[in-house]
Amino acid sequence: MKLPPFEYAAPATLDEAIALLAASGGTAKALSGGQSLMPVLAFRLASPSLLVDLRKIPGLDRIDIDAQGVKIGARVRWRDILDDARLRTAFPLLPAAISHTAHYQIRNRGTVGGSLAHADPAAEMPGIAVACDAQLVIAGSTGRRTVAAADFFTGALSTVLADDELIVEVRFPAWPTARRWAFEEFAMRRGDFALAGIAAWYDLDSGGRATNTHIGVIGACTRPQRLAKAEAALNGKAVDAAAILSAAKAATESLDPPGDLHASAAYRRSLAGTLLERALQRASS
Ligand SMILES: Cc1cc2nc3c(=O)[nH]c(=O)nc-3n(C[C@H](O)[C@H](O)[C@H](O)COP(=O)(O)OP(=O)(O)OC[C@H]3O[C@@H](n4cnc5c(N)ncnc54)[C@H](O)[C@@H]3O)c2cc1C
Fold first, then answer.
1. Mean per-residue pLDDT over the chain, rounded
2. Distance between terminal CA atoms of the chain?
3. Number of independent structural domains in the chain
4. pTM (2 decimals)?
5. Are residues 67 and 118 in the same domain?
6. Domain that holds residue 232
């Protein structure tokens, strides 16, 4: 289907992009990789008056790693994350999850900022951001603000972003090398959106028990979220078969996923529990 008509601008600075968004009174949209926006336009789910292309804005495509953690610019593409060898040690959960994101061609264009703003509950990056206590740096007409990923997503395809705001970068706290972690997801075909996915990680205390457990779910939810009851079931325990089963049971009981033509709610719930079992088995082995 042909796209609806729109004006196009490719500003050279972030301030200019924000000014264009603000001047449109909510009728303009940012364009990053276009891998979600173009289908949205083609299906006439949106008809913006103006597309503000972010590709000429300098500095949004950086990945910076230091003792505080990892900062990933909004225009960093999936391909950049997979190609950055530093991330495999500095934040191994991220490339592991992004290796499931979409298909080769889409990974060459799709970006971190676009995915976070699009807020698909089955997308990997929003799920990892919530599971890992990431912070989003957002710029708008009135300045910059930092929002915890857990507070950023308000529902399926919905966030706290205002019409004149852009995501600038996402910040992940430092990742200890001894951390135990795993990412598991199931999709109908490789590269499809996940029917369910689980990111799980924990640290070990001096007695070899799990502490600081974080368990995040995608797909089996209306927005990416942590599973507090499953985390509580693991914290303070040795991660053995019994603890893993009790965390998986807690996860299954606390989920209330939507059903659709791809999978029923009951299937997604059960799948998330199974994926958590697998993730914890892998993390603890
Ligand atoms: C066939 C197919 C399969 C896919 N499979 C997966 C998958 O398995 N997992 C997955 O996670 N994704 C998947 N995707 C989506 C893909 O990862 C997209 O690249 C991503 O969701 C959006 O990124 P983008 O850069 O293309 O954003 P765009 O399409 O350019 O923009 C998406 C939305 O974000 C807004 N936006 C863009 N950048 C910013 C910014 N910096 N600040 C504020 N708003 C912004 C736009 O206005 C728009 O509303 C798939 C897409 C397709 C077409």
1. 97
2. 49
3. 3
4. 0.98
5. yes
6. 180-284
